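Form 12-C: Joint structure prediction
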Amino acid sequence: MEKMKIAIYGYGNLGRGVEYAVRQNPDTELFGIFTRRAPETVKPALEGSKVFSASDITRYKDQIDVLVICGGSATDLPKMTPALAADFNVIDSFDTHADIPKHFAAVDEAAKKGGKVAVISVGWDPGMFSLNRLYANAILPDGKDYTFWGKGVSQGHSDAIRRIEGVLDARQYTIPVQAALDSVRKGENPDLTTREKHTRLCYVVAEEGADLARIENEIKTMPKYFSDYDTTVNFISQEELDRDHKGIPHGGFVIRTGRTGENNGSNHVIEYSLKLDSNPEFTASVLVAYARAAYRMFLRSEAGCKTVFDIAPVDLSVKTREQVIAEML
Amino acid sequence: MEKMKIAIYGYGNLGRGVEYAVRQNPDTELFGIFTRRAPETVKPALEGSKVFSASDITRYKDQIDVLVICGGSATDLPKMTPALAADFNVIDSFDTHADIPKHFAAVDEAAKKGGKVAVISVGWDPGMFSLNRLYANAILPDGKDYTFWGKGVSQGHSDAIRRIEGVLDARQYTIPVQAALDSVRKGENPDLTTREKHTRLCYVVAEEGADLARIENEIKTMPKYFSDYDTTVNFISQEELDRDHKGIPHGGFVIRTGRTGENNGSNHVIEYSLKLDSNPEFTASVLVAYARAAYRMFLRSEAGCKTVFDIAPVDLSVKTREQVIAEML
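Section 2 - Result
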């Protein structure tokens, strides 16, 4: 069997995750890493991974089966994915929920022009969480949805703390409130405020002599990021932060409760949860599974922008249809 | 919007569940119930539901969009589904895992002959659990699968107890072992024996004067059903059984743990769980969602036997593709 050739476009934590994930899948191989930095300055995680300049990518358009675009949603992906989708089958993890329809339209136009398949917003939220929302809603039309995130590191909140004067480094964990989770699982259908769903836990390294009370107050009162939450601030040393908080764990829960039957008397709880040691490595693993599906759809001459909702589960599996029916159904 | 006309073939707990589920979905309406009994002896759960004789069904083949076949997997479905799949779009909940490939082949031939869509083995296991096994395996190739069932009523085990001399009635609950679940969730990758995964809890109504010790021993030593499990037997009165154990709850857990990254150093846990007050009503709700998908596929001129693996999630939703992308992704 000829292996599917996957290339990585953008090389940070997510790109490294894709590099590892490609190694785990027997039907994929890494064509190479494309970087906007000088290629010779980039050291791949795995021996043998080739590094190319991003500006040369169209030269390789006939040699790459799927391009996994590992850029940020704020500024990179809205430009990169539409620009690359006419020449390559592409996957991205665009996660600005409100802007997905706009991104979809731009990518769809490019992909259809080039006869390629693009899959956007792949990962776990959006991605696996979205899928579970859709399945659970289709099964239980009369019900209520809940999504909880964490325990996990929020990069955006960590960055927001780092911008405060006197802060050298910070790590912020989002934590679901256990009592809220318990109530949802019991089918109590609670209406939960922002504060009732999640708490925020911050580890902060401050400059020597900094006013810790001021920093703590600035964090806790920061609009949007912290003011609507119960927030705990712990000041620790850089050594402690590096030693105890270097991982990028995350996860969460998608729960739908709903009622059926006579007088809606039967209650049901559908729950999907993830507990991830590495957010970027898990996201990368989802991206590679959808790269497989994208390539299969391309081989069947389907073109245009797709989401996880459009892709039949069988296309994600390394196994044949006969195998999954016999072994997994 | 014209509503999709759904008919129920076979009217027991599952059929009643479909009748209720159709009422919950705004784009479906019940054409009627087909029964092998005398139609006038069947009282539908909902006012206005029409009852027809199963032997007349082909008369209505142009008026029914999807037929939900609510028969047993042991003897009914292997005959019914292939027999009906040439004339109707059909859904069944065939759940004898080992015989699925054979059932698939028979149904596929009939459905292709008639240009119809058949979806087999729909429900939660097989069904939603199968989907979650496939998704989790595609994402984490290097990992381990676990399925736990319960707490829930096993009809087969309850029936087996009822066949023992001196037993008037019985209800058997399958219960997952909490310590095993905890170990799996921690990523310890335990190898679990049958006994370590589930216990069995039995409520038994015995004839007056029956030898309770003998009955208990016959249950606990029954091969396949109980001998490999830690089994608890409680003798209760018929009144207690009817009062406390009339529901048909079920549920369970599909968990995959897997590793990624440098030296496989990151552990991930994907968990899907169901807690169902009514096993047949929930299964029926899944059947109706897949009836929607079957009919959409039929309208697109796709024909043949399908499974949950073949169906793009978007086809299950009452909402349009644009809506689910905007609202659920």
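Section 3 - Comments
Chain B touches chain A through 69 residues (CB under 8 Å). Residues 6 and 241 of chain B are 35 Å apart (CA to CA).
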